[in-house]
Specification:
The chain is α/β, with parallel strands linked by helices and 194 residues long. It has 2 domains: 38 residues, no CATH class; 140 residues, Rossmann fold, CATH 3.40.50. 18% of the residues lie in helices and 23% in strands. It is built from 4 helices and 9 strands, in the order E-E-H-E-H-E-E-H-E-H-E-E-E. The N terminus is likely disordered. The structure holds S-adenosylmethionine. S-adenosylmethionine binds next to helix 2.
Length: 194
């Protein structure tokens, strides 16, 4: 049971349920973020350890069926999505450290997560392989690409955020915009959140 993008120390964070925000990049880790959480070191790609704020969840949740059981596939470090969904009356199962790509998964109706962007293609492929409905929060430019296009053309619904969303407590916004990339969950194929 190993995350591919993390060092093995992340496995000891398996049952940690904390809303965490990475704050600094350490020199000497080019393209990577090194942080200490609950006194445990983790090394991740800088784009992987960001946590989903309510403003990114609300437009999606308001369009989802509360009768379904959702699987938050990346809640091993941060349970921000799981907590917010439960508070709002959704049935959600957390990953609790399971590797989405390698481990056996529990029963659920649909995947809902903010995947690590450095391995987004693997998450996209896995969702289509599972052949279940899904909602993945991804950079808008994920739309382009031969490898992804092969999957997307078999079905995709989008909720696009026209404003950029901040994923850190300091309110700084990333240079990219995000969208919910969904399949078999939404009534509309394309919606914009202004
Ligand atoms: C963008 S963060 C989102 C975290 C949390 N789900 C949220 O939205 O607040 C992506 C998370 O995926 C985790 N992760 C990386 N590889 C994974 C894998 N193969 N299976 C499950 N989680 C993974 C990372 O440790 C990171 O916490």
């Amino acid at each position: 049971m190993r995350y591919q993008s993390n060092t093995e120390t992340i496995n000891s964070l398996r049952y940690t349920n904390t809303y965490l925000t990475p704050t600094k990049t350490i020199q000497g880790y080019p393209g990577a973020l090194k942080q200490r959480i609950n006194n445990v070191k983790i090394n991740n790609k800088g784009s992987d350890e960001y946590y989903t704020p309510p403003e990114a969840l609300e437009p999606l949740l308001s369009r989802l069926d509360k009768q379904l059981v959702y699987y938050e596939a990346t809640s091993g470090v941060s349970s921000a999505i799981v907590d917010y969904m439960k508070e709002n009356g959704f049935s959600v199962v957390g990953s609790e450290g399971r590797d989405f790509l390698l481990d056996e998964l529990p029963e659920f109706d649909a995947v809902l997560t903010n995947p690590p962007y450095s391995i987004r293609d693997k998450f996209i492929e896995k969702c289509y392989e599972l052949d279940k409905p899904f909602a993945l929060l991804l950079p808008v430019n994920t739309l382009q690409g031969v490898r992804r296009g092969k999957y997307f053309k078999t079905g995709l619904e989008l909720i696009v955020f026209n404003n950029r969303i901040s994923f850190t407590e300091d309110g700084v916004k990333p240079h990219f915009g995000v969208a919910w990339f969904c399949k078999d969950l939404l009534k509309e194929k394309l919606e914009f959140i202004l």
